[in-house]
Amino acid sequence: MQNQGATGLSRRDLLSLVGSVAGSAAMYHAMTSLGFASESLYKGPIRLQGDAKGASVLILGAGLAGMTAALELRAAGYKVQVLEFNSRPGGRNWTLRGGDRFTELGGASQTCGFEQGLYLNPGPWRIPYHHRAVLDYCKRLGVTLEPFIQLNHNALLHAANAFGGKPQRIRDIKTDFQGHVSELLAKVTQQSKLDETVSVQDKEILLQALQSWGALDKNYAYKANLTSADYRGYARDPGGGLGAAPIAGEPIKLSDILQSQLWRYLRNFAVYEFQTTMFEPAGGMDMIGKAFAREVGDLIRYDAKVIRIQQNDGGVTVSYVDSKAPAAPQLVKADWCICTIPLSILSQIQIDVGPRMKAAIDAVPYSSSIKVGLQFKRRFWEEDEDIYGGISYTDLPIRQISYPSNDYNRSGRGVLLGAYVYGGANAYEFTSMTPSDRVARAVELGSRLHPQYRAEFENGVAVAWHRVPFTLGCAGSWTEKMREEHYDNLCQIDGRIVLAGEHASYIPAWQEGAILSSLDAITRLHERVVRM
Amino acid sequence: MRLTQIEPVRSTSRVSRGRLLIALVFGLIMPLVAHADEESRSRPQVPLSPGFRFTEATGEELFASACQGCHMPDGKGAVGAGAYPSLAQDSNLESGGYPVYIVVRGQRAMPPVGAMMNDDQVAAVVNYVRTHFGNQYRDAVTADDVKRVRP
Fold first, then answer.
1. Predicted confidence band at B47 (pLDDT cuts at 50, 70, 90)?
2. Touching check for A472 and chain B: CB below 8 Å?
3. Which of A222, A387, A473, B33 could bond to A179 as cystine, CB 3.0-4.6 Å?
4. Taking 50 as the threshold, does the pLDDT of residue A274 lie above it?
5. From residue B16, how far is each of A165, A350, B19, B49 by CA, in Å?
6. ipTM
7. Which chain B residues touch A454 with a CB distance below 8 Å?
C-alpha cells in the first residue's frame, strides 16, 4: 500500500531516497512524519555525544532504570557508582524459583518449593511488542525471548453467578457476542435504519463485512450451523472415515452473554498493551536484570539502604547504612545523582530538593497488587483441557489464572499463576493474609475453574507488593489531575538530582516506562554537563 | 488513569456467601505453602469482597482486611527500605479528624483506601484503631465526619 504523491514518487521510494542521502536519523524522522514507523518514543540506542569531563554520577537503585543509566553513562565517560537496597540486581524485575527464600514485611518467610526450571515472575511478566526500549536492550544484552500468550481462545471466562458457575471458553463468548452483534447490525442495516449514516454504496459492503466478521449465514443470521462452527468450533469436530461429519454447536444466547458480564473481559484481548505479539524472557523475567548486571554489576554496592540525600552547588552526598546490619552511616559523594528509588520510599527519605519536587514525590500513592504461583503434579490444563498458554479471567477474587507460555506438551510438573489481583478490595485482603493463606485461598478459588486443583496441587508461593521490603507497594498510581499538578515537577532536574523509574513515566508499572524515563533523565543530565 | 489498563475488570456482581463458605471449608484442608514459617494465622474462613469495594462491615474486619496489609496485625507497622508507621499508642490519633482524613484521602504513598469504603465503614475502622493497639480515644467519629472530607 503506497501513497502516490503529486511528485509521482511512492512513499517507499521517497523513504529510501531520504535514507540514502541523509542517514537513519533523518529516515526515522521522515518515517514518523509519514505515519510509517510506530509512535514509540524510543529512538534506538542512545548516543550521549560530548565530553563528560570526568564527572561522577551516583545512581540510587539497581532496577532497570538504574542499570540503564549506569550502562549508558559509563559508556559516555562518567564515573559511575550504584547503591542498591537488595542483595541482587533487578528490583521489581524479579523471578522466584525453587530454593529462593523471600521474607516479606512483617517477617513471614517463604522458601519457594518449585521444581527446577519452574518459576513465578512476581512483578513484570510480559512485554508488548511496542515496548521497543525493553526489546532493544534484550537484543543488545543477549536475552532470549519467547512468545507470551495473552489470548488463548481455548482458555476460560468465568463468573461465579453466570452459567451455573460453569466456566465458558473465550472462543465461544467472543465469537457468539460478535455473531449476535453482527446479526443485529445487519438487521437494522437491511431495514434501512442506518441510511443517514451509511451510504447506499457502503450498505452492501457493510452487510458483506458483517457476514464475514460475525459468521452470519446467507440470510445474515447467526445460528447453529457449519458457518458459525467455522469460528466457534464444533459440538463434534470433523474427523476421518465413516460417521465423522462435523456437528455444529449451539451458540450461547445474546441475553445470556450480556447478563453474564463475561463480555467485560474481551477488552483484555483488545487493548494496545495486550495486543499480540507479546514476549517473555525464556527462563524468567529476571534474565533481563541479570543481563544488565553482567554489564554493570561491578558498579553496584548491594545491601545499601539510603537514609539521606544531600546536595549543594558542589555536588551530592548520599548517606546509607547496611540494609542487613544497620550501623554507622557511610557517605558517598558524586557530582550528580540519578535517583530511581520508588516514591513510596523516597517520600520518607530526607532529600534536599525544592518544594515543587518534594511535593511531587509526596503526591503519588502506590497501588496494591498480589500474585500467587502454584505448582501442580502435572500440566492438567494441557492434558485434560487443551489449554496451552494464555489467561483465564474470573470475577472471583483471584481475577485470573495464567498458564505457562513455555515447555508446552511436556509431561511432569507445571506452575500456574494462580492469582493476579491489581487494585480493589481483594488486593488488600490478600495482602493482609499470611503467605500460606494466600496460597490456600488461590487453590480453593481456582478449583472452581479447574477441579483438578484438589488432586494435583503441590505447593505455592505468594507475593503481596505492599509487603515487599524494597518497594512498599506495586507501582505509582497516577491520576490525570495528579499528573497535571506534579508530573513535570517530578521529572525536572533539581540542582544536581534527577529522578527516574516507572513512576516518572506515562507507562507506570511497565518496564518500558522505567527505561524510557531513565534514558530521558540521562539525556537531559548529559546536556547540562556538556554545557557547563 | 493509565493503571486501569492493566487492572482486572471491576466486578459488580455478587458472590453467594454461602457458596463461598462451603468452598472455604475445602480450602482449609488443602496443603499449605511448602516450608512457610507458620506465623499466627489470619482469617481464612472470612469471605472476600465480591467486587472492587470492601464489603466488610465492622472496624475489626476492615482493619484485618485493609489496614493490616501494611500496618500489620499488631498495628505496629514494619521497616524495610522505607517504613509503615506504627498505629499502636499513637498520639497522632488523638484528633479523630486526622485518621479520617488520611483514610479517605491517602497520604504520600498510602492509597486512599477509604475510597473503596462507604462513610460508615471508614468511621468504623477509624474508631476501631482509635480504641485498640493501646489507643484509648473514646470520642467516636461519625459517618458525617467522613462525608465532610470526601474529595
1. confident
2. yes
3. A222
4. yes
5. 11, 49, 5, 11
6. 0.89
7. 26, 30
